[in-house]
Design goal:
242 residues; mainly alpha; Cytochrome Bc1 Complex, Chain D, domain 2
C-alpha cells in the first residue's frame, strides 16, 4: 500500500511542477498589450503624440492651444487632418501620418480630430462675429505690415526686439525661427486665452483687425526673421597674436 502511494505521488509531481512553471518567452497572465495601430482611445493617442507640445489638456503648452474653442471653430476638419498627417513646414510640427513617416493610421487621426471636437469645440465660439478665413487668400504686403504691428501689437510685445513689452518680444529671432505664416495668422485670429493673447477683435481698441491687416502684419513679422536665428550678437574678431 505504501509503495502504491509513493508511486502515485511521484506520478503527480511532474504535473504539479509543470502547472506552476513559467516557460521562457511565455507572457504573464493579464490583459494583452494591443498593437499600436489598434489603439483608438483619444486620451492615449493625444497623450502619446500631442501633449508634449500642446499641453496635457490642450493648453499651456509651447505650441497652439488646441483647447481654444475659437481655434476649433476656425480650422476645418480637412485642414486639421492635413496638419496632423503631414506636419507643417517652418515650425516644429512633424507629420504623424504613416505616409509622412509617422505611426498613426487614418482612423487614429480621425479619432484625434473627433476627440478634439468633442471636448474643445463649442457652439457659437465667435459670438455671432465672422472671423477672417483660416488661410490667407492673397500674399501679404510686408511694407504695410509694420504700421499694423505698431498699432495692434507693439504695446504688449514691444516696438523692437531689443525693447520687449510686458508680454515678451515676438520680434526675437529665436521666436520667429519657430513660426511660419499660418501659425502667426492663426494666433492673431483665434488668440491664445491660456497665455492672455487676444483674438483679432481685441488688438486695436474700438475695432477688429481686417483680413488684409492680418495678412500684412504676418508678412512683416516673417520678414523680420533673421538668416541665423539664435545669434543676436555680432561675431567678435579674434585677438591678434602678441
Amino acid at each position: 500500500m505504501r509503495i502504491a502511494r509513493r508511486i502515485a505521488c511521484c506520478a503527480a509531481l511532474p504535473v504539479a511542477m509543470l502547472a506552476g512553471c513559467h516557460w521562457p518567452g511565455r507572457p504573464e497572465p493579464g490583459p494583452e498589450v494591443p498593437r499600436p495601430e489598434m489603439v483608438q482611445s483619444f486620451d492615449v493617442l493625444y497623450g502619446r503624440n500631442c501633449s508634449g507640445c500642446h499641453g496635457a489638456n490642450g493648453q499651456d503648452g509651447g505650441a497652439a492651444q488646441l483647447a481654444n474653442p475659437e481655434f476649433q471653430a476656425l480650422v476645418d476638419d480637412a485642414s486639421l487632418r492635413d496638419v496632423i498627417a503631414k506636419g507643417e513646414r517652418g515650425v516644429p510640427m512633424p507629420g504623424f501620418g504613416r505616409e509622412s513617416g509617422g505611426e498613426l493610421t487614418d482612423t487614429q487621426i480621425d479619432a484625434l480630430i473627433q476627440g478634439m471636437r468633442g471636448r474643445w469645440r463649442k457652439p457659437n465660439a465667435f459670438g455671432g462675429d465672422t472671423p477672417p478665413p483660416y488661410k490667407a487668400t492673397h500674399a501679404g504686403d510686408a511694407s504695410k505690415g509694420e504700421a499694423v504691428y505698431s498699432a495692434a501689437c507693439a504695446r504688449c510685445h514691444g516696438a523692437t526686439a531689443q525693447q520687449p513689452g510686458k508680454d515678451g518680444s515676438i520680434l526675437d529671432g529665436s521666436f520667429l525661427a519657430l513660426m511660419n505664416e499660418q501659425t502667426i495668422r492663426t494666433t492673431v485670429i483665434a488668440g491664445r486665452p491660456d497665455v492672455g493673447q487676444p483674438d483679432w477683435r481685441n488688438h486695436i481698441a474700438g475695432r477688429a483687425l481686417t483680413d488684409d491687416e492680418i495678412t500684412n502684419v504676418t508678412a512683416w513679422l516673417i520678414a523680420q526673421r533673421p538668416a541665423a536665428p539664435g545669434q543676436p550678437y555680432a561675431a567678435i574678431a579674434p585677438a591678434s597674436a602678441k
